[in-house]
Amino acid sequence: MAIIDNPKYADRIAWHLSKYPDKRSAVMPLLYIAQEEYGWINDEAVNEVAQIIEIDPTQVRSIAGFYTMYSEKPKGKYWLQVCTDLACALRGADEFHHELLHELHIEEGGTTADGMFTVEHVMCLGACDRAPMLQCNFHMVEKPSGLTMDDMRVFIEKARSGEADLQALIAEWRSLVNEHLKSFE
């Protein structure tokens, strides 16, 4: 695995580099690409990003370590971040979070034995009115009435069987949100 000289990422890397007069400014989007490839920001990812933007790996590591959206340890294929701040908790997010952990037989921050799912609680994803909700690999997953464990069981089953299409699932749930929002027009 690599992002350098990988045709899968060549256009995206070139696009990000073209956005900035100084290629060092592309460090954060390149870290996202590296995390997508490796599942976390490991030494190889740091070195590749540093090589692309021609800075010392220590500088890349300091940026990756500062921001919480970059993981410095391996995560599951699906990184589920459940919002559990007060507003979401009042709509059942805490219970949803605990049920999800129980369903997957893991503890907070843990990864399933098959390496498919990591679950963490986070504070404020900005969708309190649609709680419980979560972010999966940095994509909002929400429904107007809030996610249910039945929704998650369907997704978990599809993911484990190889049938899951994260983008299609998110698009389906977003269409429900959009329909709901149109009712306020």
Instruction: Going across the biggest sheet, name each strand in turn.
Output: 2-1-3-4
* Alpha-beta content class: alpha+beta
Tell me, rounded to a whole number, the average pLDDT.
88
Rg, Å, rounded: 18 Å
The helix fraction, in percent, is: 40-55%
Biggest β-sheet description: 4 strands, mixed
Portion in strands: 5-15%
List the total number of helices: 8
CATH topology group of the largest domain: Glutaredoxin
Any idea what the shape is?
Answer: globular
Question: Any overview of this molecule?
Answer:
This protein has 185 residues and is α+β, with helices and mostly antiparallel strands. 49% of the residues lie in helices and 10% in strands. The chain has 8 helices and 4 strands. It has helices spanning 7-18, 27-38, 43-53, 57-66, 86-89, 93-104, 149-161, 166-182, and strands at residues 78-83, 117-122, 134-136, 139-141. Strands 2-1-3-4 form a 4-stranded mixed beta sheet. The longest helix is centred in the last third of the chain and has 17 residues, at 166-182. It is globular, with a radius of gyration of 18 Å. The model has no long low-confidence stretch (mean pLDDT 88).
